Amino acid sequence: MKNLIFFTSFITGFMFQGLWGYGLPNVNLGLTNMLDGGPIRPYPGWYLFEFAYFYHTDKFLNSTGDLLGGVKSPNFNSFAIISQLVYQTKKNVLLNAKGGLDFGVSTIVYSHAERNNLGIRSSGAGFGNTSLGTYLQWDPVMYKDRPLFVHRLEFQFSCPSGKNELPRNTINPGTRFFYLNPYWAATFYFTERASASWHLFYLWCAKNTVTDVKQGSAVHLNFSLQYEVIKKFYLGFNGYFLQQIENNRLESVEIPDSKERVLGLGPGMLYFLNPDFIVFGYLYFETNVRNRSQGMSFIFRFVKHF
Questions:
Q1: SS3 at position 68
Q2: Which of 78, 126, 180, 284 could be 264's S-S partner, Cβ–Cβ 3.0 to 4.6 Å?
Q3: Is 120 part of a structural domain of the chain?
């Protein structure tokens, strides 16, 4: 555990609207999981987070979990690179916690939906929204010379600065609306090698300036159980869950049965190449889906401290 450093992530939704959601922006669903509560050695300074994200689906589902329109769904594939720069303070700034700032942006390298009669079309490659945030990171609570609990709070928002071609194309790198996505992330250590992590978010969206639709609020959660199999190498069981808690509204009129839901589950791994460079890999399979596409994703991630 002595090699653990600051490799938390602050990605909360600057990917591409419409990729797998029919209305909500694409927030952090499984992008960060294992040991995500915070640092054991809180190094100050700069951090670079890089994500390579692949997603595939051939099922677009309605509010009852059946195929959208009752017809065969198109194949959709996408690949994105997500970059984030984070600064961690050296001294405590508030409530005995260290502070930080982060900035992120995504680049859609490839995005394609095969021809279909559902009106699902992709605008292709382009830049996504920018994401900005500020956070408080607490030092770990120690127990018998080992970490017991560590956590973090962040306020983050996303600006509608990315490429968006609504209504002509339904899948776009960016959104047409501003949204907030604050969260609480924590890790609890059962033993020196075994631990559980969670990342609980709340999502609030402003009205879309093109469609006049306001997406209903939602909650979503990343979670993981991980174990250090050999020194510096972890295996884990990971997942994410999103539930929209309010229906969408069109010009203040509620749209019935418009709530989204998804559950993703799969394995993950983490390896410390050295104390300043960590790599992650996650594989997810989605189920229990409503008003979204149901697919699978693979995420490769690395964290570098300077």
A1: helix
A2: 284
A3: yes
Query: What total of structural domains would you count in the chain?
Result: 1
Which pLDDT tens digit goes with each residue over 93-118?
999 999 999 999 999 999 999 999 99
Q: Is residue 2 one of the residues assigned to a domain?
A: no
d(CA 6, CA 137) in angstroms, rounded, equals: 10
* Neighbouring residues of 230: CB distance < 8 A, sequence distance ≥ 6: none
Say which CATH number the domain at 91 has.
Answer: 2.40.128.130
State the residue for tokens 């945030």.
133
| Tokens 């916690």 -> residue | 97
Q: Please give the residue range of the domain that contains residue 194.
A: 45-305
Cα angle 153-156-158, degrees, rounded to a multiple of 5:
165
Query: Considering the domain boundaries, does residue 18 fall inside one?
Result: no
Residue 261 is which amino acid? R
Beta pairing, strands 233-244 & 213-214: unpaired
Best CA proximity match to 16, nearest among 124, 157, 133 = 124
pTM for this structure?
Answer: 0.91
46-87 pLDDT tens trace = 999 999 999 999 999 999 999 998 999 999 999 999 999 999
